[in-house]
Specification:
Number of helices: 17
Distance between the termini: 55 Å
Low-confidence stretches: 1-16, 22-28
Number of strands: 15
Radius of gyration: 25 Å
Helix content: 25-40%
CATH topology of the largest domain: Rossmann fold
CATH superfamily of the largest domain: P-loop containing nucleotide triphosphate hydrolases
Number of domains: 2
Mean pLDDT: 85
Amino acid sequence: MSKSLQSSASGFEAPSPYELDPPRAEAPALSDRARPLPRISIQAFCETPDVAEAVHAASEDRRLSKTHVTIQMGGTAAAVAHYQESPTPNLIILETHAPHASLVAELEELAHSCDAGTKVVIIGAANDVVLYRDLMKRGISEYLVAPVTAFDLMECLSNLYNNPASDPVGQVFAFIGAKGGVGSSTICHNVAWTLSDALSADITIADMDLAFGTTGLDFNQDPVQGIADALQNPDRLDEVLLDRLLTTCSKHLSIFAAPVVLDRDYEMTPEGCEAVIDVVRQNVPFVAVDLPHTWAPWTKRLLLQADEIVITAMPDLANLRNAKNIVDLVRAARKNDTAPHLVLNMANMQKRPEITQKEFEGALGLETLAVIDFDCENFGQAANNGQMIEEFNAKAKSTQAFRDIAMALAHRKEIKVEKRSPLAPILDKLKRMR
């Protein structure tokens, strides 16, 4: 029997000429298998320090940030004694090494104290299909074979609380600049447009720079309503209101535009911002969050809760320092996620002393996802026209860079189609005749 549940059919299929990218060696693609859990209470009763440590590690992951997790030692016997006087939570995790008959007897005693709707996950030592089937018949939600890791637990709990038959939760990509004016918004908008065009998948850009956001300008839109209206009352935001507040830019791309007015005070809370993004991600496969270069509690929350992070920097000392601070924070807070992506923008500017790509990568401990050269002509004219780079000039050097970033974020890879000569059919026929 498998140690953990098989991953559900989550994610959105990409049509040819793109296919799913195989999982990267440095970290499992957990973001594709484990989705965020709702606000539930979880109580774990462990017998060994290893399982207790795995539960603790899972509880610190961003996907369980809304849950309330408590861990006690003592296994099934401690759980039976505890719930004789206390109500049961939404989910109970039990570690047990008892034989089949003893385990069934303990569970029957526990069942007398369990409230309706409580889910139970058991972690046991026996890899026994007979035991597994017996536990499933008795209403146990899942049985995992020890040893288990935090990844196993998160994937298991995600499958319990996210219906595989329903539409999958969309992925959130957070874009942030290491310094103001490095072009993070431009990178975000072009990558989002490329995703919508290349994969024919719906994507929404959330412009979080309420006072100075450029999403409306970059897509030549002047929306009356936008993300500020949603942030005023995040609890009221639903699919109907979301549809009214979004501005459609193309068949697959919409924007949650910023109001860009200075005579209003914007009170943004981490909980409100997260609630708005949660509603958006329930309705589209991809959400690109354009974060301003402003460090606040809500900025930190959105950055750390994202599925993928893109840090845009210019090759100078201030950008290197700031980028390293962001990378160190992200690595410490997101131990179960892939490393953030680094994009060097406006590189190779003439007569400007720059830190080399190799030095930048060495200081951050990251490989650069893309290097975009300084190109004032294409970027300036595209911005003035309200177009993306590929729309304005498909032959621009940065076009391929945006495609590389988009495919990396979506875990897709481009299948290179070899161009054939017009004479190829005739040559093939001649070869067959020989």
